[in-house]
Amino acid sequence: MTGFRRIESGGRVDRTLPLAFTYNGKALNGFAGDSLASALLANGQITIGRSFKYHRPRGFLSAGLEEPNGLFTLGSGAMTVPNAIGTVTELREALAARSQNAWPSPDFDVMAVNSWASPLFTAGFYYKTFMGPLQKSWMFYEPFIRRAAGLGRATEEKGNQRYDQRNTFCDILVIGSGPAGLAAGVVAAQAGARVIIAEQDFEAGGSLLCMNIGALETWRADCVARIAKCSNARLVTRATVQGLYDGKQAVMSIVDPATGNVRLEVIRFAAVINAVGAFERPLVFPNNDRPGVMLAGALRTYLNRFAIAPKQRAVIVTNNDSAYQAAFDLAEANVAVTIAEHRSSSSGELLAKAAQLGIAIFPNSGVADVLGHPAITAVRLGGRHAVTIECDALGVSGGWNPVVHLTSHGGIKPNYEPRIASFVPGGFAEGHFGAGSVLGHFGTLATIRDGVKAAQQALTYLDLNDGEEIEFPAIRADRAYGIQAAWTPVEGAESGKAFVDFQNDVTLKDVKQAHQEGYSNVEHLKRYTTLGMGTDQGKTSNVNALAIMAGLRGIDVANAGTTTFRPPFSPMTIGAIAGRSIGKHFRPTRRSPLHDWNEKNGATFIEAGPWLRAWYFAWAGSSPETAYIKEMELVRRGVGIADVSTLGKIDVQGPDAAEFLNRVYVNGFAKLPIGKARYGVMLNDDGVVLDDGTTSRISETQFYMTTTTAQAGEVMSWLEYLLQCHWRDLDVHVASLTDEWGGMAVSGKKSREALQLAFPDADVSNETLSYMGVKDVSFGGTTVRLMRLSFSGELAYEVHCPANYVQSLWEHIMRAAEPLGIKPYGLEALASLRIEKGHVAGLELDHRNTLDDLGLGKMAAKEKPYIGKELRFREAYQAPDRWSLVGLELLEPEKKLRGGSILFAASDEIKGHGRGYITSVTWSTELQKFIALGLYQGGLKHEGEEIVAAFPLKNEQARLKIVSPHFVDREGARLHA
Amino acid sequence: MKITCPHCGDRDWSEFRYGGDASKARPRHGTGDAKAWHDYYFLFDNPKGMHTEYWQHVLGCRQWFVVKRNTATNEMIGGGE
User: Fold this and answer.
1) Top-level CATH class of A280-400+480-560?
2) Phi, psi at A204, each rounded to 5°
3) So what's the ipTM on this one?
4) What is the pLDDT of residues A310-320, one digit of tens each?
């Protein structure tokens, strides 16, 4: 019978600090220093989950980060954390863990029927079932598959976890605190460098923690103490370096032991030492996934670190020397051990020690089958010795894979190293160094030597003090590491499922099938079989898989290559990546200088890009649908005031300012008189409209440009680009005033009266301030810029001034014009008034339309050059059937028009993308009907025609008439009044 | 990753915007036919290795400048104007 027992003494657990936790609701106990995995094993929980596709019983394969099987859901409700790796989850008081992918329990799982239906789930299952002629079957199968397959489920409740991020800096980042990392850390720290040593485990020491050697523990503790003494060094446990990025930057996630919350640190380092170690890899043989089958190194870790041993008997199967150490340690803990050795022999020293400990060795043998259900009860060997051995656990070692993930993040592919039958880093970028088993150097003393050397190299690279030698632990010399690659099962193996990827349930047969079907490139193999795609990203499976594929293709493993390694190295909660950039902190919010006034005076706000803008005001109604109509009527009949501070505002100054604008705008600005404004349109180099706005000439050499709210930043950057990179002969400077200045539109028949009341000393008569006239007046100690511009089509002015004065200016005008009934109006009315007037705005200026599409072609100067002129006249941009601007009137008064509706000719079938769409829509107070602006194939050539607007989402259709986009005051009489 | 602004020195990459290929000569204003502008605006090499390009320190001093960047490793040389 499978079983593990906690040994009464030894290990690194603190028996004086018991911890109570729950597993699937059951109360269990462990000790401080336990991982969730070791605590479960100590409590006899061998089967801890079901596999992804076949729902086969699974136990822990490893004792570390590479674990494919032991995933748990921690916590409950809003604090649920799915897919936590049990082998690296530190046990804490009251931890609540649940198994995943098993219903109702791991021991009795109804979905295990998948095991019998397994032909359905072989390689390429998803492709074959859901692609091609049967595509629609995905719709049918998806809910079933999502429920049946899949790992843990995230909560849909809003959690109150807090994720922090911070930036840190160091001279040398040491990744890993095994013998190599500790040695490097001590040398670098004692030389005075600013050092960060990152350790993903909750204890420093790496492989030293799973050995049971007093001298090494002394050395380890001494290193940790030395580093602690250096104020310039920081040894961080529970800290996983998730990615190495260009420009010497790393991202590290740190788990808070009390809460499990994750903090992210972005580290800028000057040099990095990769001392990340190696993962042991399994062997591929039938039923190698039975609970109780573990990596040999994991058995050793559970024994030495957590004081957990197989109850009576263990079998070790190996193709290399490292597993003997596990066998020896187990034997010394009174476990009866048998070794199945793939090789014909191993070193005399190992054989002698084995004999001394009473360990039987079967050379030229491997595992033919694993017996027992759900967990292991016996192992049947194949190869030369076909014997069956009862056991509590099977320790497997296929060799060690250096952790080449991080060193590959910069795009450096790993190389195959036949000496260790695995991959090593293919090189290091400048300032990057490696030490220890990541380089394929196994043996504790060798890795310590590596660490010292790497630290010295890094110190030299940084021109810092030379590092001093450190004391080495007094242990026997390293044993040589011998291995003979073994990728496939031994002769005589049963036909049962031999797993390559445990987490994704990919078997040897699947890899063979992928090869037969032509998916033999490693990247294709991955996508076709899902091998290496789980949360473990194939840490225990990738090398076996690509070596098997290389064998099937008859090529060297070196030539098969690896798949691409990408961050994060280990699964990380998305919350840690988002950090505090959530909710209202997702992006900055921009507020106008009138925001507070608007808020106090009944404005409802709407997000417009990053801006919060006043949408409508309470005086006009409690919903936007009704309020904006009253606000429009206010402007059309009396006078209203609106916040336009969000407009881009750019000060353009210099002797060549007029020439500059003349090049940028399609229409002429060279001869614009002082004291006049002009509407201008600018194009990109490709002839598409970039932006529009009004620019005023303040003096011979000064202009005041406005841009749309949305394009303010883009236009500013564009002007700077032209001046700094291409037109350096022009003597012009531009400065953004978008934040420094603010403004308001005073609009309506009575707007001139309003200004007269507000500025009794200024002459604002039609004669001195005619349409498009501009005038600076001094008022209350500041400059107030009066511009007779109209977005609404009514007599109107824009009044701008420095931002700090905007609110008092606004309040002054409101007070002065109170007898005229002035009231504020919001963005909805502002936008609706411009639709009635036929002014294009952001919805029409969508970076796909040309001047001609928008009916603005006549504005462009014939003679003078301007940006975009040459490409504007490309054939396709002049095609007669281009979608261009039209006005639209609803012919069916009982219906409603919606923005985004698709336009069709009356005779068209209502299907597909139609002949255009509605860009902007509003109720017209002037015409008492719904009107719209839209783009329609052929544009105003179809004026007067009746067409159809379809809104398929609501299954609506309405008849429309194409009209001029200028719905009100086509002659402009109101503007000039 | 850091980028060297010729005015401000080393700053985090997130303060900058990319501004396109700087190896191509922009036709002088008011000259060049549609073909010249088409080639300038639409035709680019996509080299693996060193690439001359414009960047702007848009969240800093707003300086535009030219650097050579290795498109495979993001190593940058220059920061000359």
Assistant:
1) alpha beta
2) -80, 145
3) 0.97
4) 999 999 999 99
